[in-house]
Amino acid sequence: MVKGNIKNTAFTSIYELSNYTNINYAKKIFKEIKNKKTIFVDKNHPLRGNSFLVESRFKTTDKLIRESKIKQIIELGSGLSPHSLCFSNIDDLNYTECDYLENISLKKEIVDKIKNKKKININYVSGNILEADTWTEIKKYLKDEPIVIFCEGFMQYLYLKEWNILAKFIGEFLDHYNGFFLYEDSMKYHPELHSKPETINFLKNMSLFGKTSAPKRIISQERITSFWQKRKFIIDRIPMITKLSSNEYSLESKKMLNSFKMWKILKKD
Ligand SMILES: C[S@@+](CC[C@H](N)C(=O)[O-])C[C@H]1O[C@@H](n2cnc3c(N)ncnc32)[C@H](O)[C@@H]1O
Questions:
Q1: Which of 3, 41, 176, 181 is deepest in the core (most CB within 10 A)?
Q2: Which residues partner with 95 through β-bridges?
Q3: Three-state SS at 151
Q4: 88-143, pLDDT tens digit by residue?
């Protein structure tokens, strides 16, 4: 992903969550962003109309992590997402967010303001997720307990050669701590949807917005499966939550979500 456009890509999901869904803390975060005026804010941004996708991935991730009972969580490319604040009701939480410096500083400032004096164990790591130094920094915050590593809206922006780099770090961490890696399914991984003009348009706009051609490079479900299996990972597929509050949730979008499944990646024993 091109670093210069990080602000824009983080903006789109918080905009959707805040304005069109009932996700906790989203409105508060968005209000702070607007006040700060340091980030791109445009109600006509080109990815408008997809709040059902961001809401579904958010709620499914939240549910799967809570069900796992794992309290040590690493969020990659956390952007301006409300996840860490939403998990703050978990006792003994050890939460680490990672993003580029510009976004992580803005996020920390906003979360500190919203949480006020409430104690929440959130660690902030700034850096490139594809570099070893960043993972060394993350490690400093970890206890010898299982971990969930997850990301939303991040994998679609990576080229396949970058998936290789990421898989190496994920493998090392899961070998050491146990647990799993979680990310959402997306239009990019469903070639059968690519005859639809809305899908093509959406991915084209993602590319334009992030200034990268990665979202347009379609990867099939089979290719992703073989990618992880070749590297000795086990894959579990979990349906996305389809009961949503989004006021942009048409029958057509529900059909799409019904065919999506989260990617839960575990290490072979
Ligand atoms: C589409 S945004 C999603 C943000 C958040 N996960 C959400 O759903 O609201 C992608 C985020 O990943 C971050 N990101 C992308 N590539 C990265 C990299 N190599 N290292 C660190 N952060 C990265 C961007 O800065 C951005 O905040």
A1: 181
A2: 73, 122
A3: strand
A4: 999 999 999 999 999 999 999 999 999 888 889 999 999 999 999 999 999 999 99
* Residue indicated by tokens 């990617």: 263
Q: Which of 1, 133, 165 to mutate to test the pocket of ligand 1 (most atoms within 8 A of CB)?
A: 1
- Pocket lining for ligand 1, CB < 6 angstroms: 1, 6, 9-10, 13-14, 77-81, 99-100, 103, 128-130, 152-154, 157
- The alpha carbon of 100 and the centre of ligand 1 are apart by a number of angstroms equal to 8
Distance between alpha carbon 37 and the CA centroid of its chain, in Å? 24
How many A from CA of 71 to the centre of ligand 1?
A: 22
User: Residue 2: its pLDDT value, please?
Assistant: 44
Q: Does domain 3-267 have CATH number 3.40.50.150?
A: yes
- CA 109-115-120 angle, to 5 degrees, is 100
Sign of CA dihedral 138, 139, 143, 144: positive
Q: How many CB atoms lie within 10 A of CB 229?
A: 12
Q: Which atom from ligand 1 is nearest to the alpha carbon of 158? A: 16
Q: Which two tokens mark 218? A: 């379609």
d(C-alpha 249, C-alpha 232), whole Å: 37
Find the radius of gyration of the CA atoms of the chain. 17
* Element at 145 (helix H, strand E): none
Query: Measured between alpha carbons, how far apart are the two ends of the chain, in Å?
Result: 33
Q: Summarize pLDDT for 7-26 with one digit per residue, the tens.
A: 678 888 999 999 999 999 99
**Cβ contact 113:30 at 8 Å:** no
Give 269 Cα–ligand 1 centroid separation in angstroms: 30
Dist. CA 240–CA 228, nearest whole Å: 20
Q: Name which residue sits closest to atom 2 of ligand 1, judged by CA.
A: 10
Beta bridge partners of 17: none
